[in-house]
Design brief:
single chain; Rossmann fold
């Protein structure tokens, strides 16, 4: 089990999920990586690729990602494969970019704090998301629809989590999709989201409310 946090965060942000998954019997590698010095390709090569290589080659390798972590995983899987039986859960991934990144990319503080990767996550033609094709993996996506950043939400069409629209999280090839009442920065702590992560890893689908 490999966990990948989001931009400008650290491994601690995934600590509750790591605890949940260890308690469920998984061997967990909660990766911490610096987002400021590198772009997506470098983060994939420097951090995710070695972590996957260190796992047992014939056993499933599950990924749980938050935000930027999902884009790093997609980049890695453009030219690599996980062992059979592997599953991926993406929390609030900007799979089609973020309008917030478009709006703040020229701000000096943002450029300094987020570095090169912060320039790659917009919706424009230079966004890395437009270079990523479908991935051959069992993917479940959890989106949030609560915002604690209303000053950014007005930039985003439709439901959003304060940084990414619900629509932008989707992938055509995803196996399942669910929306929880959580914000972008807190979704990995949300009790329902954490339970849904465990359910998808075990069953390959989310637990949807009965109609």
């Amino acid at each position: 089990m490999i966990l990948l946090h989001g931009m400008a965060q650290n491994a601690w942000s995934m600590a509750w999920l790591a605890h949940d998954l260890r308690s469920a019997g998984y061997r967990v590698h909660n990766i911490g990586y610096p987002t400021r010095p590198y772009d997506v390709a470098e983060l994939s090569a420097r951090y995710l690729a070695p972590a996957v290589a260190a796992c047992e080659p014939t056993a499933p390798v599950h990924l749980v990602t938050h935000s930027l972590g999902g884009i790093i995983a997609r980049h890695y899987l453009q030219h690599a494969h996980l062992p059979p039986g592997s599953r991926i859960v993406m929390l609030a991934p900007p799979n089609h970019g973020s309008e917030v990144a478009d709006a703040v990319r020229s701000w000096p503080l943002y450029r300094w704090w987020m570095g090169r990767v912060g320039q790659q996550l917009g919706t424009g033609p230079d966004s890395i998301v437009h270079t990523l094709g479908p991935i051959a993996a069992a993917v479940g996506i959890i989106a949030g629809n609560r915002s604690i950043q209303p000053w950014f939400s007005w930039l985003i069409p439709g439901e959003d989590d304060g940084a990414v629209s619900v629509a932008s999280t989707r992938l055509d090839e995803m196996r399942d999709f669910i929306v929880v009442a959580a914000s972008h920065t807190m979704i990995m702590f949300n009790r329902e989201a954490r339970a849904q992560v465990r359910h998808f890893l075990r069953h390959g689908e989310f637990l949807h409310p009965a109609c």
